[in-house]
Amino acid sequence: MEIKDLLDKLTGAPVEEKMLIYVAEQTATTCSACAANAGKVFRVSDPERPQLPLHPNCACYYEEITVLQDEESVVVIPDETTFSTSWGLSELLALRNGLRETLEKKIPKPPRSTDHQANWLDMTWDWFFEKQENPKHFPADSPESIDIANSFSMKQVKAKFFSTGKMPKSWEFTGPGTSTGEYGEVEWFLGSYAIQNFQLKNGIATFTVHNTSGWRSGTRLPKSWTDAVKKSTRFEINELVTDAPRGEVLKTKLTKSMPWLLDIPGAGYILNSLPSFGGNWDQIYEVEMKWTQE
Q: Fewest CB atoms less than 10 Å from the CB: which of 71, 96, 191, 270?
């Protein structure tokens, strides 16, 4: 007897209802508002349900689940994968060819960069197409580290330091900069980040900013990119990606969704030859800057 049939028999055929579970990335830099909602389940029509994204570069999302409800119990049954169980070598080859076609065309560019010293558009490119070494170190005199030192987020970190006297540990999005327009490319690319090895001497601070760009890290892509992927592969981009090491994103996603693929002769070779994009990319920025109260 199927599990669902057994549950029906035991509970008197409970009512099925589609609901949404709040999924939040659990890292050291996850903001308190996102962390507080993690794991909560909401009805789709619930007017009190948090509207996502909560803030710029918010990595949270809702996952649809099926809930069987009766007077005594609530049983959660995960939705089935979007992939068909009839998948075989031909479907894998078609997906690989579609992705190669998409990525070879250099997906349309997002909006132009602003007047920062570094080219943060190129940084997005390097993350998405998995360029550059991993981890990537940026010295204090690099344009990227200088942009961070002059960023809106760092001004907020300094203000908190001088108001509390506590050593800074991180930058977290809180939302106000969205309406004021003070967020720049640094905030939009990095999202939340960790501050390590903070030292202050004679009004000069030295420290390390550590950031990971991954699929759930908060990095966002323009619609033109996601449309291009869907046109070539017939899949929404979120159906093809997951947080995974660089070079292994799509392989990781498919084998999680369809573990039986590994039993098909020849599938392992094709999985290993699949192009990868959006893999986790660690950046380490060394920052040296004046640290005086403004």
A: 71
pLDDT digits (tens, 9 = 90+) for 25-81: 766 677 888 877 776 777 788 888 888 988 888 888 887 766 544 433 333 333 334
Which of 63, 59, 21 lies closest to 173, judged by CA? 59
pLDDT tens-digit series, residues 106-136: 665 544 455 688 888 788 888 888 989 999 9
Q: Looking at 30-107, list the stretches that DSSP marks H as alpha helix, in order from N- to C-terminal side.
A: 32-37, 89-104
E strands within the chain?
15-23, 41-43, 61-69, 74-78, 136-138, 170-171, 193-201, 204-213, 281-290
Please answer whether residues 286 and 145 qualify as being in contact, where contact means their C-beta atoms are separated by less than 8 angstroms: yes
**Within 10 Å of residue 138's Cβ, how many Cβ atoms?**
20
- Whole-angstrom Cα distance, residue 285 to residue 146? 9
CA–CA dist 88, 83 (Å, integer): 11
User: pLDDT band at residue 262, thresholds of 50, 70 and 90?
Assistant: confident
